[in-house]
Write a structure and sequence with these properties.
Blueprint: H1 3-18, H2 22-27, E1 29-37, E2 42-45, H3 47-60, E3 65-74, E4 77-87, E5 92-94, E6 97-99, E7 105-117, E8 120-128, H4 130-136
Parallel strand pairs: 1-8
Antiparallel strand pairs: 1-2, 3-4, 4-7, 5-6, 7-8
Length: about 140
């Protein structure tokens, strides 16, 4: 795959997430893919862990969507800048338990790095500012 093909593939994973098209997400990743979500310190391995993790975000914010603002590729690695927007209307699973819906909107900028192997994403690292995310939801003391 060319670097442009890899960029399109990475962007299509974001689009599939936006549309809750879990089969399309799976098709773009290796079965043993690793998803490292730095903002939450969660590391998921394999599609059987990754997809439910992503579905949890959709449960907490059914309207969440990512917009790719920049995309770069070098060799087998793709870097995306993504802006996530959504309204917290459902339960959000956190490391200390469930966070009830706040009804608040959030806009969180993120960096998404995907390493490809054989035309599929093998490793995805997702970096975002969890502190800013939680502040927007009103979950931090002022």
């Amino acid at each position: 795959m060319t670097e442009q093909d890899l960029i399109k593939s990475a962007q299509s994973i974001i689009e599939a997430f936006n549309n809750s098209d879990w089969e399309a997400c799976k098709a773009k990743m290796t079965p043993d893919a690793v998803y490292d979500e730095a903002g939450t310190s969660r590391r998921m391995q394999g599609l059987a862990e990754i997809i439910p993790g992503w579905q949890g975000w959709k449960e907490a914010m059914p309207d969440i969507s990512g917009s790719v603002t920049s995309a770069y590729a070098s060799g087998d690695t793709v870097f995306l800048e993504v802006t996530w927007q959504g309204t917290h209307t459902g339960p959000l699973q956190g490391p200390s338990g469930t966070i009830p819906a706040t009804g608040k909107k959030q806009i969180t900028r993120a960096a998404w790095l995907a390493v490809y192997e054989g035309g599929q994403a093998k490793t995805i690292r997702h970096y975002f500012d969890m502190l800013a995310f939680l502040a927007q939801l009103g979950l931090l003391p002022e």
